[in-house]
Amino acid sequence: MVHITIQKRPYNEAVVTQRKFFKKTARGKVIKIIRERYLRDDIYCGIIGCRLCTNGTTAVLPTSGDTTHKDFPCGHFILPDTNIFLTQMDLFESNQFAFPVILLQTVMEEVRHRSLPLYNRLKALVKSDDKQVWVFYNEFRCETAIIRDQDETPNDRNDRSIREGAKWYNSHIPLARPPKGQKPPKVPQVVLLTEDAGNRGKALSANIPCMSIRQYVEGTRNPAQLLDLLASAGSEEIEPTKATGARAVLYAEHLPSTALLAGVNAGQLHQGHFNANSYNYLEGTVPVPAFAKPVLLVGRENMNRAVHGDIVAVEIFPESEWKSPGDEVVDAESTLKNDDVESGDEIDENDTLVQARESRAIRKSMQALAEKQPTGRVVGIVKRNWRAYVCHIDASSLTSSSTSSLALQTIFASPVSRLLPRIRIRTRQAPSLVGQKILVAPDRWDRTSRYPDGHFVRALGKVESKEAEQESLLLEFDVPYRPFGKAILDCLPAEGDAWIVPPKSSGGPVWRDREDLRELIVCSIDPPGCQDIDDALHARRLPNGNIEAGVHIADVSHFVHPDTPMDTEAASRGTTVYLADKRVDMLPSLLGTNLCSLRAGVERLAFSVIWELTEDANIVNVRFTKSVISSKAALEYSEAQMRLDDSSLTDPLTSSIRLLNSLAKKLKAKRMAAGALDLASPEVRINLASPESSDPLVAPSNSPNVATSSNSKDKKNGETIGVMQKALLATNSLVEEFMLLANISVAMRINEAFSQTAVLRRHVAPPKTNFEKLQDMLMKRKGFTLDVSSSGALAASLDRCVDPEMPAFNTLVRIMATRCMTSAEYFCAGSVSRDTFGHYGLASPIYTHFTSPIRRYADVLAHRQLAAAIAHTPLHPSFHSKVHIERIMDVLNRRHRMAQMAGRASVEFYVGLALRERGEVLAKTGNVGGVAEEAFVVRTFRNGLGVFVFELGLEGLVMFKQDVRFDAENYTVTLPSQTAGREVTIALFDKVKVRIDVEKDKNTQRGRVKMTLVSPVDSSGL
Amino acid sequence: MTTALSKVEISYIRSSLLSAPPLRADERSPEDFRPIAVETGVAPLANGSARVSIGESRTGRETEAEGAAGGTEVVAAVKLEVDGVGEDKEGGKVICNVSCSPAAYPHLSSPALDELQSDLTSVLGSVLSHPSLCPKNLVIVPGQKAWSLRLDTIIFADAGNVLDCLMMACRAALVDTRVPSTRSVEYRAPGKRNEVPDDIMDVDEGRNGPSSLLETREPSRVVDFELTDYWDEGEVLEVRDSWPVCVTLNMLPTMHFLDATSQEESAIPLRLHAMFAFPGGKPTLHGMRMAGAGTSDLSQIRVLLKNAEKYARNMWTGLEAKLAEEEGRRSIKAREKFYGRRRR
């Protein structure tokens, strides 16, 4: 019989068995919380083969510890204190740091108490396969549990608990290894690592091996690389910089978080995300709910060390001190060019110079007449949202550039993103990092320093090498790109790519409640080279004269079940990310490109939406069913277009497409009549073709919107990267219309079935104020009025914005109008009121995403909800929780945004490469003019023009060094012209010709597009 | 105690008390108390708590079913709650409540029980909720937030002398109470500081406190608070040694006796309740009450009060010693016991 011991103790031993603490709730109440504790004697030490702890099977710590450290020849384990994890997480995450770690429960809990993000990283560390980390529940083992002494602070108590743990290990290990024969056994030691000198002292006096992290790392085999990973906080106390004493204070002190909270609650402070201005590094904004316009922060002191993305608390100045945003481009690089790193700070005249220059920049840009907006200053940081940033090394900040130099140097790392300040790091590898993309994590930003201090995390590779650029993009936009782990791959069907739809006669579970639609003439229409085909269509005449149309979507939810590792991963990835040269999948490719992909001639599982439509495309009836289909053809847009246009073809497939097309046209007409917007965004396609291959561009002759290859001529000159605008064919619109119809039908159905938790998508109508600027521009420059009272009115007035001399003008206005709008978002039906469900752009009262479950997680959710709504598969319990759905929606919205930005950035990178290549080709052929393109002026500044190059989908800046006459009211800039001998005025929306160069910053190797005016004025001299 | 005593019984009790030497059913002398048991920290979720019993405790004994044989038993618990404060007041209050377990008074109807409860509540309230006793450290943010101290007592059994028992339990619970330590958090709006350059303000008086009449600084805008030490039980109440004990003198003309049992209580005409505290050894009378049908004159009362003070001082000293011992038992001793067992 099993012997049961009751570990619970009577309440009069409360001090041992209970832990009491107080907690303040969000509503300001204080509650007393009691945690009971049961002590046991069978908690395993985690060392493989320990003789005393017999019941452990999952031990991870090697028997003899790590023997490579020079101070511990007999082997050792490390036992870090909480402060180590709070500051040096990067060190532990580095794959060069492979020492066995004992992680005490006390430390875990303290980390969680101090910082949740760090705690999550710590948890990931414990789980990762390549680390030897053992969590020891010291508070539950009777030998290591301690009781808080009278008047002992929690901190002291935890320190004592950690020492107690270390002491126990050091006595436990020898006990487990009794001497054999004469030779004393080699007993590994457990080393306590802590940055707290007091704790170290106490540990040493108790005979516990103990050292600081720096001391420890210096004794490892290759200290140089690991030392770089040490956060700068550690280095400060050991090697104080010479100027420490006399540093001038640059910034006001941040208020403590509790004071901020109090201020925010009292309405005296406002909390929001800090957005840096990419044009002017001395300006930022914080959108807060209290004001319609975001709060403006002008100047370094008022931004007070806020970094883009931080949640800050701002104080609003009295209204008399409100300002308007600057109208000048202030570039950090040129203003701060000569800033010295080592002193960086600030006593020399260099500093006063910088200050003078900055204040001039601010003053100058403040003269504008534009409307004033709330202005304030940052008084404290509610939450830093710092992560590791992709940076370049500023070569000019190196003191010694010989590649053999291993001296510790302080250098600047410039983040790729213009929204971030330079970060000062200390490294021994500086010379070898020049010309590389590196990852740098900021650690802190002192009041005395103009720049944040950080540390080097790892190198990504050579600048402009595809791998480095790719990875840096993914990191910069926080796209999870690790290969799928084993647990996830285990969720795939065991048959692998041999999986097929079982024969219907087998009567297996696959066929349960599944319609056999294999006989239908179904086809898919996709962009060229598409591998993850998630939708297919069919249409046929019904005997009653109506038309049956069907949309068949890959049945991903058949393979991805809720609450599995694959599902969790897909939910956290949220979407497949498409870069110009890479696809980062949301689901393992076996599913995405094979089992779920609706390839031609293969039986596949699908989720079908089947309508009965009248000739006028009115819906008579709609039904949803899981099905099995067999696609008859996987067409590209152009192939489908060819079938449409070739009247000689009369096969069933072609007539089905024609039927679909006629319906699509009517659907579109209806949608437009309802006020849907035809928006535009600068979309270009990157063709990464090898020079030998034929023209990769597929541009059928008779498409309505002919794609223009801007470089078909140049291509012959050996160019490898093609940039072209995306082609739009009638068949694109055909597919799009049916997908919209399917999404709307599904949205209505799931909202009916799950009015609280349905996963929907909406596009909130933009506030009218968003359009004010554009309306003013159009009115003043072109005399067009923009009616923004409704989406229909906007669509109509956009249609009227036509300049017969500039056919592209309309598209340009559409692009600019699109930028004034809010972005669409996923939401949970129960979280917002019913009347805000509408999709503004599509002019649909309700909408969701259903049609791309292979690449979007929201669609997977919609599939599950629809399957439950038609009583096919019951819904997983978690999907009945609104809070749960809301949490997923937040992740999806963020991932979606990030994926879009990553995709755009990737295109931009290739446009840059293409430009350089083209420039080189032109230079070879003796053309000194470089690449010149037509562009539209989209913004006017006091010292420059914002231009948009249509052909390349590229937005750039033309800067003038000289002052020019700037009329902010009328959006014009007047320039002197040498050639014409008189002044030329350039206005907004004017078509100009610009010369585009890609120049590399000498110091940071950061490529940047530089534009200069060619006509009407050559601005290269200005 | 279930039924009223008959006249014969009353006269029997009276005459034995008046005989020389006085005789009591349980062989006590008039000035003797039944054994008193005090235990603190009985309610882990409360901020302070105590159980006090006079006489043999009924609950927890195997003879529970026997009924009348038990003693008087009371549990008191203190709960602190964050409360808003009106503009004019400093904040902090003590709210008392007494509930009587119906099992303690099986003979009482429910309205009668309510009456008894409210009667005892008002006695307790008039003494303990008095503003002079309100501990200063109940204030969290002056004029904004304060703890309201809820002192709830339950009478589990009544075998006479319930008020003494009640007051003792209250005192024990209040002494046991720890106020979570808080720190007020303020946000001071950007005052006029920036407008007046510092060097002008920097006159000496300006620095050394608000001596200048021209001091324009606004009162500190403290609006919220935080808990300083999330583990600590906190600090003791400020007026710890001012919470009184109560001594009831049961008077039968020409003599008085202490700690009456239920029967004795129903046999005597007059009782005097006197609440004394001895902060720093100095006696302070916090309340006095006469109850019963009999009468007494002022000269008598003066003597009685003198006696009451003497008895109260005895009780006070005993209780102090016990409370100190309890505190030790729950922290240091338990800790030693724990480490001792590990060493074994």
UniProtKB/TrEMBL annotation, chain A:
Residue span(s) of domain RNB: 514-872
Main location: nucleus
A Pfam family this chain is assigned to: PIN_4
Composition skew (Polar residues), residue ranges: 700-711
Subcellular localization(s) per the UniProt record: Nucleus
Location of the region described as Disordered in the Swiss-Prot/TrEMBL record: 691-718
Residue ranges constituting the PIN domain according to the UniProt record: 76-201
GO biological process assignments: nuclear mRNA surveillance of mRNA 3'-end processing; rRNA catabolic process; rRNA processing
GO molecular function, one term: RNA binding
Annotated keywords: Exonuclease, Exosome, Hydrolase, Nuclease, Nucleus, RNA-binding, rRNA processing
UniProt cross-references to InterPro entries, sorted A to Z: Dis3_CSD2, NA-bd_OB-fold, PIN-like_dom_sf, PIN_dom, RNase_II/R, RNase_II/R_CS, RNR_Ribonuclease, Rrp44_CSD1
Gene3D superfamilies, alphabetized: 2.40.50.690, 2.40.50.700, 5'-nuclease, Nucleic acid-binding proteins
GO CC annotations on file: cytoplasmic exosome (RNase complex); nuclear exosome (RNase complex)
Xref: PANTHER family: EXOSOME COMPLEX EXONUCLEASE RRP44, RIBONUCLEASE
Membership in a protein family: Belongs to the RNR ribonuclease family.
The protein's name: Ribosomal RNA-processing protein 44
UniProtKB/TrEMBL annotation, chain B:
Keyword Phosphoprotein annotated: no
Keyword set, alphabetical order: Cytoplasm, Exosome
GO terms assigned for molecular function: mRNA 3'-UTR AU-rich region binding
Membrane spanning stretches: none
Record Gene3D superfamilies: GHMP Kinase, N-terminal domain
Main localization category: cytoplasm
Protein name, UniProt field: Ribosomal RNA-processing protein 42
Organism: Pisolithus tinctorius Marx 270
